[in-house]
Write a structure and sequence with these properties.
The chain has twelve helices and eight strands. An eight-stranded mixed sheet has the order 1-2-4-3-5-6-7-8, sandwiched between helices. The chain has two domains: 36 residues; 265 residues, Rossmann fold (3-Layer(aba) Sandwich), CATH 3.40.50. Strand 5, helix 7 and strand 6 form a beta-alpha-beta unit. It is an alpha/beta fold and 314 residues long.
Length: 314
């Protein structure tokens, strides 16, 4: 009996040691994965990219609603503004090449911001409220470089939701919208079976910070979009809508939702890109650039006809 008891204790001890070892290796792997999967570049790397592309661009920070946010800007600040909002996940690191585009450089003062929880804006500490994100980004349009119109916002995927909310809440600051792969209709996007599971505190901290931010936004996205339902009538600017025909993340029924809700937009162009899935920002820059210029020209004509508009509501 004593021998059998000792064997059992020995077996339990080996299991405990083995489990502890596996857990330690898992934690180490999580930290390694977190350090390598970030989709962001630090300030010095961004400045090096600017030099390589011969860009007159800078890396900057500002504080809004208790959050320190990073943004980059390029071009003459006397030009009209193009604000770029990345999706989920993402960061401003993606936009250095876009800022170097000749057609964009000659028309715009370009600004791109690391949304809360991404890049160097509190990496891994997301803000689930779309309304609050819009309020945090507002200073880039409200206080900086708004002397020259029009102001165009181009948002991709989740960034499109933020772009719409900014225009809803601060319509006097925005003159045109370009929405790519936009998630606009509540519940009309892909949700993964593990989304709510990994949001639990006991699992959340093992998840790489990049995906932690993306997952939190995903969990709250439907409710946040529902809050926007009464506000669509506030969008009264020209809008371009681009989506892949084979979008595997955002359902293409979002286009019908946009057509139904954007009834006060003076211009709405909805286009589907054949053979393309969700990642338009990565693969369809020429189409996005064309849409940006089209909306710029529509907005430019409007601001020329009514130069006072845009200041209403301040």
């Amino acid at each position: 009996m004593v021998k059998r008891h000792k064997k059992k204790i020995g077996w339990l001890r080996r299991v405990a040691i083995g489990f502890t070892g596996v857990l330690i290796l898992f934690i180490i792997a999580c930290f390694i994965f977190d350090s390598r999967v970030q989709f962001r570049r630090d300030d010095d790397t961004m400045r090096q990219l600017f030099r390589e592309r011969n860009l007159d661009a800078t890396v900057n920070y500002y504080t809004s609603h208790g959050r320190r946010l990073r943004y980059i800007e390029s071009g003459n600040d006397s030009l009209p503004v193009l604000l770029l909002l990345h999706g989920s996940p993402g960061s401003v690191s993606y936009y250095a090449g876009r800022m170097a585009d000749t057609a964009i450089r000659k028309r715009f003062h370009v600004i791109a911001v690391d949304r809360p929880g991404y890049g160097y804006s509190g990496f891994g500490d997301p803000e689930p409220s779309i309304e609050k994100q819009a309020a945090m980004i507002r200073p880039l349009l409200d206080s900086l470089y708004t002397s020259k119109r029009p102001v165009i916002i181009a948002g991709g995927s989740y960034g499109a939701s933020i772009a719409c909310r900014i225009t809803m809440d601060y319509p006097w600051l925005v003159d045109g919208l370009v929405l790519t792969g936009p998630s606009l209709a509540p519940g009309q996007e892909k949700y993964f079976w593990f989304t709510n599971i990994i949001e639990h505190w006991s699992i959340r901290w093992f998840i790489p910070r990049l995906f932690r931010s993306a997952n939190t936004e995903k969990v709250y996205h439907k409710k946040e979009l529902e809050k926007m339902l009464p506000l669509w009538e506030n969008i009264k600017v020209p809008v371009a809508y681009l989506q892949g025909e084979d979008d595997n993340i955002v359902d293409t029924t979002n286009a019908g939702f946009a057509r139904k809700m954007l009834i006060h937009a003076p211009f709405l162009d909805i286009k589907f890109i054949k053979g393309r899935e969700h990642r338009l920002a990565k693969y369809e820059w020429p189409a996005i650039k064309t849409a940006i210029i089209e909306i710029y020209e529509k907005a430019l004509n409007k601001t020329d006809q009514d130069p006072g508009e845009g200041e209403t509501g301040l």
